[in-house]
Design brief:
It is a single chain. By secondary structure, the chain is α+β, with helices and mostly antiparallel strands. It has a single domain (about 1-79), classed as GIY-YIG endonuclease (3-Layer(aba) Sandwich), CATH 3.40.1440.10. Helices cover about 45% and strands about 25% of the residues. The protein is built from 4 helices and 3 strands; from the N terminus they run ββααβαα. The protein has helices at about 20-30, 35-40, 55-70, 70-79, and strands at about 1-10, 15-20, 45-55. Strands 2-1-3 form a 3-stranded antiparallel sheet, with helices on both faces. A hairpin with a 5-residue loop joins β1 and β2 (about 15-20).
Length: about 80
C-alpha cells in the first residue's frame, strides 16, 4: 500500500508527499536527515491528511493532483 500525505509545518505551510510507511516517514520529517530538506527547516511537522492507494502509480497521480491545488483547495481537502 502507498500513502499520499499532507503535513502542516511549524510556519503553517503545507508539504505533500508519498510513502509506503506513514508513521516512519512522518518521524523522518520530524527528527532525521532523511526528511525532506523543505521540512527540516520547518520542524515540527504534523500529519493533517493521508489517503491509502493500492499501487504507486495511483498514489503518484493523486500526489501530482494535490500538488497542483491552491493552498485554499488543500485546506478544504484536509477538512
Amino acid at each position: 500500500m502507498y500513502y499520499v500525505y499532507i503535513l502542516k509545518c511549524r510556519d503553517k505551510t503545507l508539504y505533500t508527499g508519498i510513502t509506503v510507511d506513514l508513521v516512519r516517514r512522518v518521524k523522518e520529517h520530524n527528527s532525521s536527515k532523511l526528511g525532506a530538506k523543505y521540512t527540516r527547516a520547518r520542524r515540527p511537522v504534523k500529519l493533517v491528511y493521508a489517503k491509502k492507494f493500492r499501487n504507486r502509480s495511483l498514489a503518484s497521480q493523486a500526489e501530482s493532483r494535490i500538488k497542483k491545488l491552491t493552498r485554499e483547495e488543500k485546506l478544504k481537502l484536509i477538512k
